[in-house]
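User: Before I run my own analysis I want an independent prediction to cross-check against. Here's the chain; please return only the structure tokens and, at the end, one sentence I can use as a sanity check.
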Amino acid sequence: MPDWLVGLAIAFGCLIASWGLLAILARRLPPGVLRDLAAFIPDCVTTIRRLRKDPRIPRRAKIAILIAGLWVASPIDLIPEFLPVIGPLDDIVVVALALRYAGRQVPRDILLAAWPGETKLLERLLGPAHAPQTDPPPSPARRPDPDR
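Assistant: Structure tokens:
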């Protein structure tokens, strides 16, 4: 077997082993922000897949969600993935912006039903729920000012 093929097989084996080690370590994280952050991208991918198939979602929101899904799946990134800590930052930002946009287009209960992770994280990402617009209360009748 050629030496370059052996080297390639070893590199590929190390890559698969490191992914497995990261998956095991991510499951051992204590509950909290780190665990939520480790599960953010997989939860986003699951949410994108669920919302893409939902007929109640407007087309504009589906397009934004599809673009975010393609961005995450694309091997071309603004920040290379191999950089520690900041590598997946561009993926997280694009997905967060797409989910915020979809959150304005889609009823919140549908979005929360599609989210497989901790709902606190998604609610924090989406921001406060907006109350439905109602007519403002009528202003009290003004009496004429007697000093004028």
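Sanity check: Residues 134 and 146 are 34 Å apart (CA to CA).
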